[in-house]
From TrEMBL:
Species classification: Bacteria, Bacillati, Actinomycetota, Actinomycetes, Micrococcales
Top-level taxon of origin: Bacteria
Assigned protein family: Belongs to the F420H(2)-dependent quinone reductase family.
Catalytic activity reported: oxidized coenzyme F420-(gamma-L-Glu)(n) + a quinol + H(+) = reduced coenzyme F420-(gamma-L-Glu)(n) + a quinone
MF terms in GO: coenzyme F420 binding; oxidoreductase activity
GO annotation, cellular component aspect: plasma membrane
Protein name: Deazaflavin-dependent oxidoreductase (Nitroreductase family)
Amino acid sequence: MAFDTPNGTRGARQPGRSRLERWGNRKMVERIRRKGTRRGDKLVLVTIGKRTGAERMTPVRWFPGEGDTKLIVASASGAPRNPAWYYNIAAHPDRVRIEFAGERIEVTPEQLHGADRDAAWRQVTTTASGFARYGRITDREIPVIRLTPRAS
């Protein structure tokens, strides 16, 4: 369950830094939490800030994993750095949950490595070709995280 993917040296601009992007993310979080999305492919990832200890909510696209697991991708749109939520998960893996369409689900995150990561990455890029582009514009390996619901 090691969250140890290093940052890269090149890539796109890190998303989510402008005031407009933060506002858009807040609005998307509200919508996903309330009624989901039209295609049902986004969820709200709730983490605890690595440095602040504050609850953080991030809208992310998800892909079906095996059974009732979900896969999320720490692409940061191909930026050289991993997204902040990746480090939040690494710091507090026992305090991660997802929310969508009125549901709140406590999950256990696991970063995939080796053949598991390669298979999941193929699934993601086959379903959403934009992620393959992100992989080409950055020199870091983009982490794929499996979220498994915890028993109540």
